[in-house]
Automatic annotation (TrEMBL):
Organism placement in taxonomy: Bacteria, Pseudomonadati, Pseudomonadota, Gammaproteobacteria, Oceanospirillales
Statement: the UniProt record of this protein carries the keyword Transmembrane: yes
Main location group: membrane
InterPro entries: Flag_MotA_CS, MotA-like, MotA_ExbB_proton_chnl
Subcellular location: Cell membrane
Species name: Vreelandella lionensis
Residues annotated as transmembrane: 28-50, 145-166, 178-201
Protein name: MotA/TolQ/ExbB proton channel family protein
Length: 262
């Protein structure tokens, strides 16, 4: 569970809710007409921009903002080094029975066990990586579009409310509801964009980049294992994916160990 996403969204909602409760009755901020116009209108406009498949996938992908199970780069490197040792000791066929959490990596290990050539492995895994990237991009694009559309729909609701108010100036009982629609639709649009759509879109972009980077690491490792690279050479090759400060720490530890051995 990604606590940053959960705490951020819930914290923002709590603060807004507290300011509403402390100021006046929460019922004042509830307007069915405004909600219908902004929420429903925004979703329909976004749907018009994408296919139904992309639209549905985006809301499934939103769960990735809260729950994401990619291993850390260091953990993945350690796992891949162990897989490399198994391949050298027991042969490629032994990789077929190894349990890994990623379907992407599992597919690559299956190809190694089946004896695919390095070129074929690289070509197929790169295609898989690009298709995954494309699917993930769709989720971020849908929520980015929702973040752009909802404030505009809020402004449309404001204009509708103002027109209704001005057209009924002779009946004071109708001015209040029309003014409520005019003001609350702007609030609804701003809240959807600022507190839901934009944060989710940004987090999905972050997730997409993390997964793409991890898949690149896995492809490099699979090709190195296919080329029968020494596990220690593989480990050194993959450390390029670590942040520079972690690489330098590992390098200093290795130099210290080498000095003690000498």
């Amino acid at each position: 569970m990604d606590l940053a996403t959960l705490i951020g969204l819930v914290g923002a909602a709590v603060l807004v809710g507290a300011s509403v409760i402390m100021g006046t009755s929460p019922e004042v901020f509830m307007n069915a007409t405004g909600l219908l116009l902004v929420v429903g209108g925004s979703l329909f406009v976004v749907l018009a921009k994408f296919s139904i498949t992309q639209f549905k996938f985006a809301f499934k992908a939103a769960a990735r903002a809260f729950k994401f199970q990619l291993p850390s780069i260091q953990e993945s490197i350690e796992e891949l080094v162990e897989l490399s040792k198994i391949a050298r000791r027991e042969g490629m066929i032994a990789l077929e029975s190894r349990e890994v959490n990623s379907p992407f990596l599992k597919k690559g290990l299956q190809m190694l066990a089946d004896g695919f050539s390095a070129d074929m492995i690289k070509e197929m895994m790169e295609k898989e990586r690009l298709l995954t990237l494309e699917r993930n991009e769709a989720g971020g694009q849908v929520f980015s579009a929702l973040g752009e559309v909802s404030p505009a729909m809020g402004m449309i609701g404001t204009l509708v409310g103002l027109v209704q108010m001005l057209s009924n100036m002779g009946d004071p009982s109708l001015i209040g509801p029309a003014m409520a629609v005019a003001l609350l639709t702007t609030l609804y649009g701003a809240m959807i964009a600022t507190m839901i759509a934009t944060p989710l879109a940004d987090k999905l972009w972050v997730r997409m980049r993390q997964e793409a980077k991890m898949q690149e690491l896995w492809i490099d490792a699979l090709l190195a294992i296919k080329g029968d690279k020494n596990p220690r050479v593989l480990e050194q090759m993959l450390t390029i994916y670590l942040p520079p400060e972690h690489r330098s720490e590992e390098g200093s530890e290795e130099r210290t160990a080498a000095g003690k051995q000498g």
